[in-house]
Every structure is written in C-alpha cells, then in structure tokens.
Write the structure tokens for this entry.
Amino acid sequence: MNTLNIGGSQLDASWFLILGAILFTIGAAGVLVRRNPLVILICIELMLNAVNLTLIVFSRQLQNMEGQLFALMSMTVAAAEAVVGLAILVDIFHVRDVEDVDELNEMKG
Amino acid sequence: MSPLLTVDLTYTWSQALADLSQIAAVATLTGFFLFAIVVDLVLPKHRRGGAVAMTAVTGFAFALATAAYRWVYGQGGASAYHGFATGDNFALFFEILFATLGILTVALSHSYVRKRGLLESEFHILIMAAVIGMMVLGSATSLVTVFLGLELLSIALYIACGFVRTESRSQEAAAKYLLVGGFASAFVLYGMALIYGGAGTTVIPEIAKRLDATSSGNPLIILGIVLMGVGFAFKVSAAPFHMWTPDVYQGAPLPVTAFMSVGTKAAAFAMIVRVFSGGLPHLAPEWQALLAFVAATSMVVGNLMAIAQTSLKRLLAYSGVAQAGYILIGVIAGGQSGLSAVLYYLFVYMFMNFGAFAVITLLAGPEGDRDRFSDLEGLARRNPVMAVLMSVFMLSLAGFPPSVGFFGKLFLFTAGVSAGYTWLVVLAVIMSVVSVFYYVRVLVPVWTASARTDRVPASISSQGVLWLSGVASVALGVYPTTVLLLGQLGANPISGP
C-alpha cells in the first residue's frame, strides 16, 4: 500500500509525507522568524495542518482508521486553539497596537 | 472500494457502563463542570461566585472520593474505549492528586478573586476544565487521548493566564503562553503522528508490543521520539525549553500561577511516563539520552538563574525549572523504584510548592500581586503563622530533613544511582546545595526585624490551604511510607524500561 490512487493516477505515498514535512518546516520557520503575533498564530495552524496531512497519509497506508480519527480530533482542537488565540490577541489589541511580539517585553525572560 | 477497517459496531449498554466506570472520576467532574456552567447562567449576579465555588469544590470532592473508592476496592485496571483510556492505579493516583489540587486552588482563589474584583464563577469553571484535562492525561492510554487531554488543559490555562484583562502583564503572559504552547503542541502532535506511522497504532500498550529494540533503526520512530521529547520538555518547563516559564508565571494572576506550577508539571510528567516509559520501553536508550540532557540543563540553568531574581514569582518559576530536572532523573532511572519516586515527588511537590505560592497570594492587594522580596518584610510579626509555614515550604523545597522535599529527592537520587546515572545525581546534589542559597534568601526578609506592622489577613479557606500544605509538607516527610506505597502501586501498571 505504498501508492495512493489520486484521481486515477498512482502516486507514491512518501511524496505526501515529504509534503507534510515541508509544510511543517515552513510553519516552524515562520513561528521563529515572523514577528507579528497573528502571523505566528497562522504558522502554528499551518504546522497542525501539516500533521493532519501526515496522519491521513499514514492512515491510508496502514489501512487503519485511527489516523483519520486523530486528524479529526486535532482539527477540532486546532479550531478551539485558534478561537482562544484570536480572543487573547484581540484583547491585547484593544489596549495597545502590537505589530511585533518583541513589543510584548514588559517582563524579560 | 474496500472498507479501510472492519469495525465491530455492536456496543452494548453493559460495555458502555464498564467503559464509563473506568473513567468515573473524569466523568463525575465533567458532570459537575456542566452543572457549574448552568449555575452560572441561572443565578443572580451577586450569588454566582460563591455558588460556583461550592459546586467546584463539591465536584472535586466527589471525583476524589470516586477515585479513592475505586483504588480501595480494586476495580481499576481494565482498558476502556478500545484501549483509548484506562482506570488503572496510575490513572487513579493522578486523579486523586489533581482533585486535591483543584480543591486547594478554589479555596485559595475565592478571597483573591473577590479582592481583585475579577469574575469569580468563570475563574472556577476554567480551573475545573483544566483539572479535567489533567485527569484525562492521567488516564489516557492512546496518543489521541493524550493529545486531547494536553490541549484541554492548555487551552483552559491560556485563558486563565490572561484573566486580569485590565492588566497588560496578564495579557502578555496569556499571549506568550499561547504562542509558545501552541508551537510545542504542534511538535508533540507531529511526533505522535510519526510514532503512529512507525507503529501502526496509537494505543500505547500496543505500541510497546509492536516496537522493539530494532525499531531504533527506523528514522520515523527516532524523529518522533525527538519531536515528542522537545514538546514534552516545553510542557514541563525544562531547560533549554523553559524561556516562557518565568514570564508566564510572573504575569498570570497568583492562584493561576500556583495551580499551573504544580498541575501542568504533574500532568506533563504523567504524560511522559505513559508515553515514554509505558509505550517505548524497548527504545529507552534513545529517549533516556535525550531526557538526561534536558534534566542536566534544567538543574544547572534553573538553579543558577533563580539566584539573580528579584521577583518571588520568577524565583519560584526558575525553582520549578530546576525541580523538573530532579524529577526527570526518576523518569530516566525508570523501573519500580524510579517511577514510584516520581509519583511520590509529584504528590508532595504539590503541597510544598502550592503552599509557597499560597503565602505570596495572601500578600496580594486589590491593585495587583505583590511579589517583591520587600513585601515579605516583617512577616514574622505581621502574621507569625504564615511566617512559620513559609519557612517550612522553603526549607522543604531546598530539601532539608525531615521535610518531604528531603525524602522526595532521596528517593529520586537513589533510584538514579542504582540505574547507573551517577553523574546526573552528582550534578543534582551539587545544584541542590546551590539552591539552598536562594530558598533561604527568601526567608531573610521574613524573619528580620522590620518597622512594618500591617497585618496580613487570611480568609478561613486560605488558612485551611496553608495548614493542610504545611502539615502535609512535614507529616508526609516524617512518615513517607504511605504515599511512597501509593506511588509504588500507582507505578505498577507502567511496564517501564
């Protein structure tokens, strides 16, 4: 089961895993490089979606439903996290305009 | 198109009841959680806070009683929901721990929330949600349920950290915790996905059966272990992934800091033990090397950074980083002695660390938290009981006999030595000596003469928290057998390396 049938053409499953890894890396790099808190939140979502893709490919490859179940759960969780995240950021934007996470420096770590 | 998996769709009532009884404590608390939301909706504004606090305490007490009943009458152990959850002694141990922590938190925060004019009912509901997440982590035996519990706990705490909406520090703490926590969760999730890909199942005991020592040649598994290890280290606030800890602890309102410092740490250690010791025992050399590095860095960084702090919250945050390092020694050592030492330490750490935060919480005024060293000045005269108890907590954290901190470290370190990690234990002992300096430094302003005479008032429930934590910090040290035995029974279900 190392090939997946996509629209009639056979594709090797590892391509999808590589795509997932690339998306995850882009997301992780975005979190580390970008400074706008909203963009960082988007990058975290990208990382979670990269994982969902990986989970679903494994699920097809292994002929096992647990991966799809896991992906559904993680989508729900990602939605909840996005809601809470946006609410927290909106709350901050009410008080001050934060375009750069480095401005969140009242406490120095 | 062939079905991906033939699923047995027969699910009888008796099966449903048997499954539900395995997670009885979680189910009980969830019931009270929903009830608390209804109470908050229907009662008039001025009566909501107290009623929800009572509901929360009752819920925690019932969950505690349920777990204790199942422990005593030995009904636990079976796997439920197709191996996704269980009610074994390990789960029950953590359910008892988290229910106790919930009661302590609600009792401590009641007067604090009133004093600062925060929304009380929402606060307790969030704490309940976080405790449910922690309990799920304790009883989860599948990577799916582990992830769900982790996120339930984290998302509730993101909100709780930013609970003082008028204070920019609290908001900053929430934003930092959210961004760092989300990043760490993504790492954990990717690691879990890779382990699933390598093992072909998410059920942890099944993973342990399918992966053996030869799996260490599989890059998927190794990458999965590393990614999960990094994510877990973020969650237990172990160095070098601890940067968020001092800022979040300092910005969050004090009862939340107290709750987090104990709760997330215990829950994350439950997760590490389940996944690493329980699920990957044959790949122990790989994750032990990773965790040994993290433990050594945590002990050095945490203890050295704590010396320079001027804020009590930040000092305790770095002390928490160091303590995570000590506890990791027990996880690395593994086996019956190592894991029971971990459970013992987590249980007693709750009392000593929560007690220390409780003292600082009572210093807070309506305008905000007071966590400078000077705020402790003359405490011996302003409230002698609190001064004595603060000394007990600090000496216990530093590891003076006959306190719980001493025995906790003793058990962890002996387990470490007998597992052959002598270098790590030597480092831990040296660093414990360093830690005495900053723990005792906290006590200097408490006991030196001062002109301040303003009393530090404490409500009855807060006094109860202080006394319980103080007595437990000494009594469980003088007589450590009971909890250690409970820890051994709790560690039994984990096969371990």
